Predict the 3D structure of the following.
Amino acid sequence: MRPFFKTWLTICLLMPLAAHATNREQRLPNVNGYTPKSHVSAPSSKNKQAAKHSTQLSKDNSKLVPPMASKESSNVLSRAVNVLGTPYRWGGSSPSKGFDCSGLVKYAFNDATFDLPRTSNAMASGHGEKVDRSDLKPGDLIFFNIKSRRVNHVAIYLGNDRFIHAPRRGKSVTIDTLKKPYWESHYVVAKRVMPKEPGQMRVVQR
């Protein structure tokens, strides 16, 4: 009986210790300096930060440049697409003489409606308002730097990562895509230009 009693006593003593150890393991997520109270308050702090971030996003969204009116955008894209296949010509700005990249843009945007500089670099540096690539809309201008650190090529965004442009000598007005690694690597910035207002001086924002 004595060995049996000893075994029974040992089990009785070990059971509370085992239970204590189990409870301690279950509380492990709350250790490392965090009490249950502080653990509960942490999400509250994160919520404050999330609310602050949300407010900042709202402020940023309020600064987004409005897209060009659908009729104006349609006219621009229509004029550009109608000259697909026209040969490239440096300094050219008409279907009969050919187009260079900025000449095509000037032609498509129509000087009577839009006030644009003649060169791609001038369009990029001092005209229109910058838009994020994720916010591109049909009719926006996209700029590239080819064999140079400065902007020296411009195209008209069509939507769905496609754009129309006059590439270079030996080529003609064509449609291309931003998904190509070449254009991805040379992409610089995008600008949105709005129609000039009759009788008012246009405000240029960089």
